[in-house]
Automatic annotation (TrEMBL):
<feature type="transmembrane region" description="Helical">
    <location>
        <begin position="390"/>
        <end position="408"/>
    </location>
</feature>
<feature type="transmembrane region" description="Helical">
    <location>
        <begin position="503"/>
        <end position="527"/>
    </location>
</feature>
<feature type="transmembrane region" description="Helical">
    <location>
        <begin position="111"/>
        <end position="130"/>
    </location>
</feature>
<keyword id="KW-1133">Transmembrane helix</keyword>
<protein>
    <recommendedName>
        <fullName>Ion transport domain-containing protein</fullName>
    </recommendedName>
</protein>
<feature type="transmembrane region" description="Helical">
    <location>
        <begin position="70"/>
        <end position="90"/>
    </location>
</feature>
<keyword id="KW-0472">Membrane</keyword>
<feature type="domain" description="Ion transport">
    <location>
        <begin position="75"/>
        <end position="270"/>
    </location>
</feature>
<keyword id="KW-0812">Transmembrane</keyword>
<feature type="domain" description="Ion transport">
    <location>
        <begin position="388"/>
        <end position="638"/>
    </location>
</feature>
<dbReference type="GO" id="GO:0005216">
    <property type="term" value="F:monoatomic ion channel activity"/>
</dbReference>
<feature type="transmembrane region" description="Helical">
    <location>
        <begin position="245"/>
        <end position="268"/>
    </location>
</feature>
<feature type="transmembrane region" description="Helical">
    <location>
        <begin position="414"/>
        <end position="436"/>
    </location>
</feature>
<feature type="transmembrane region" description="Helical">
    <location>
        <begin position="608"/>
        <end position="637"/>
    </location>
</feature>
<dbReference type="GO" id="GO:0016020">
    <property type="term" value="C:membrane"/>
</dbReference>
<dbReference type="Pfam" id="PF00520">
    <property type="entry name" value="Ion_trans"/>
</dbReference>
<feature type="transmembrane region" description="Helical">
    <location>
        <begin position="578"/>
        <end position="601"/>
    </location>
</feature>
Amino acid sequence: RVGPRGEDQDLLLAAAYVSDAQYNRNVPFETSPQAVRLYHFYNHWTMRAATYFFIWVDLALALFEEPALFPLPFLATSIAEVLCLTAFFGRLVHFAKVTPQMVFWKDTKNICIMVTIVLTLIDLITYGSLEAVNIHGVRWSRALRPVFLINFPESRQIRRAFRSIRNTLPDILYVFLLFIFSVLIFSLMALKLFGDRGLKTVQGSPYFTNILDIAFELYVLVTTANSPDVMMPAYEFNWWYSLYFITYIIINTYIFMSVFLAVVYNNYRKHLKNEIRTLAYLKRHKMIEAFNILKVKVGTEFVVKEAQWRQLAKVVEPDISSSHLELLLRISDEGQKGYVDKTNFLRLADLLNIQVVTINIKRHPLEAWMPRVYQSSPSLLVQKMVRHRIFVWVYDVIILINAIFIALDEKNPLISYAEWLFLSLYIIEILLKLYTYEPRAYFGRKQFWNWCSETGMLDGCVLFPARKYNSQQILDIVLILRILRLLRVIVSIQRFRVIVTTLINIGPTMLTFGGLVLVVYYVFAIIGMEVFHGKVHFFDPGSTSPDALVCGNPALKDSAFARGRYCRNNFNDLPASLILLTELTVVNQCFALLADGFALVTHQAAKLYFIGFHVVVVILIVNIFIAFILEAFFVAYSLEKSEVETAIEKKIQELGVGVQEEEVQDGKLIDNVDAKDSGFSGDDGDNKRKALKGLYFRIASKKYKTVDALLQQMFESEIAPEDEGPSLEEILNFSPSDVHPKNPSFENSA
């Protein structure tokens, strides 16, 4: 190192490694000073936000392009798309500046983005040229727009979901081929059983006389969308024929669909375990790299000086308060030696990832204004009563009784006037809590149920004037707000709380699957708009046009599609297409009717579009989602605190500045918003408390952890502190059959 400038460069490089470990990024960046600075800028939140902004603008262009919900000239949409492509290319060039050339050109993601940009430009030029000479073209490149959402480094969670699909495909393909073989065998049997018997459907068409129609009807029967309609002609002819359909449903609907789920779940779990193991070792590898950059020798061991550790933490987390930073340093340097050893340094990314809430405990205003009255025996008795759990239970019972009264006929005067009683009780509850707890803490941003109680008082005040003015909309909103109070009762029960916590746990990762579904829906919607737009038209219910009876297409005359008034289900714009695809995902009777309807207005081959959508979304993606839900519940029920969380809580209690999360939940009502930026000082507990002046800490709720983070925590707990793991090349080439180390807890959970 040469002077301070070299130390600053080392600090930035180490911070890049720690930040990558913290957010599980796997970007092999150049280590030159300029590349490191560019890499920090690349990962800045503004750059990520700008990238997502242009991605969503690019996807939203389908709303304004023909067939459009809000039509704009082709010139306007093409300029917007070129701007988006320019932003994507700039982001790609930025990425190329921070990664080695060989790595950049070997990365499939970068090649996909470049190819998509080129193809989109070709399509824009071709389509624009055809439009100039009044020839209608096809904007086929619109279906490629989700490539940008998938392949930029910011979308690694969506890529992982797609990898789950890719890894599952080889095994599920064999099951799917066997399933198709079963459907074809049953189709041939149906042709021989029913084809020559002259049976007719309800519409009067021949029953089971064409092998392709039979195969389609039997495939739809697997979804139960056409049951029992498809079997009724045969069943009416002879009840023995029902055994054929019952056997088919048992084999293909129940057995094969269950096997699909089993195969998907087994592969998802196996590859999830492999990905989590890879992430854990990459994280360890990056932290070791950061340590090796900053280490100095003290005695016989290598360590990182306290000053550099502080600077590193501030570079990685610029907004961290000095009190929070001091707490983390006390955990990392327990002996107050002035340096952090290797074992404790490797925990830095985990320490920064754990949310430590800074709490500023305030005195009640009444305690300052009239301390003798507020601290008197009757006053303390009231406060003790309000803080007691029985007080919460009593009001939970009152909420349940109020719910019963809501369900009863409010036109009865006795029930109507009972609302005033409940309103009075809620006002008493609020006044008692405001007397016991500091008001600003009581109405803090995180005190959701207190705002609900206030809403209880508010809806009582609004309810009766609303009746006077007979405003039904106000009444509806108020009644909904009152019913929401029941959530408080549900969350107060431990078993219900576990389920609710698990649902919150899976929330962040559900967004990943939301992105996955959006990509698939968008691609199918674009294809559907290009193939089916203008084939079906919707007319207002009061329309007298004769075309309204056939959805604007004579081919639908006397069809079940037109009789069922499915005209609104069309591909004439992006929102309508997405709604139609949502209906197909539910797999009710719409599946058969929509497929038949669009086949009538185009070609029988159009049914392949709907079958393909069902296979991709319902059989593959929905089953992966179910596998994820199962894994989430297994992990949530075996959740334990991590070693790092335990260390933080232990240090918080040792310093005498701890507040238990349960105490806050049960009514201590300590606001966690107004955090003071003060450090620790003094040697004993009293001095520390005086220096803090009401500043306390607690670990934030574990309910916001993602399932992936919990599994990674389980795996990391089994890695010995001195274990540096395999080499980087070995880590990147892990396969699901590799188990390193053998981890009983992790193996059971994942």
